[in-house]
Amino acid sequence: MTKERTTALREWMIEDMRIRSLGDKSQQAHIRAVKDFARFLGRSPDTATPEKLRAYHLPMTDTEVSPSVYNARITALRFFFSTICGREEVKRYMQFRTQPPRLPP
Q: How is 28-90 classified by DSSP, letter by letter?
């Protein structure tokens, strides 16, 4: 991973991902998702409220982010809040999107 300005929270997240043997690309995707969420909040992501989490979901839905990208971001945030922040209860505010069924050609 490239060296950026790292906070203690980010270091902790990187260490926990290494402990769980997440691959480099998964680690980068998780870091990118949490960084995107922090940019949306304008402050540290560990201070997010359920209302802010809900507000973060809406632009992803409105900009037609694919369900796979949407779900990858939700997975990263769920990992962040449950493992790093110890806020397991926040996970219930983050729902996955389903892939629309494809019609046969």
A: HHHHHHHHHHHHHHTS-GGG--HHHHHHHHHHHHHTT--HHHHHHHHHHHHHIIIIIS--GGG
Question: In a 3-state reduction of DSSP, which class is residue 9?
Answer: helix
3-state secondary structure of 15: helix
pTM for the model stands at 0.83
Axis-axis angle for helices 50-62, 24-41 (nearest 10): 110
CATH number given to 8-93: 1.10.150
Taking only the tens place, the pLDDT of each residue in 18-38 is 999 999 999 999 999 999 999
Contact (CB, 8 A) for 49 and 58? no
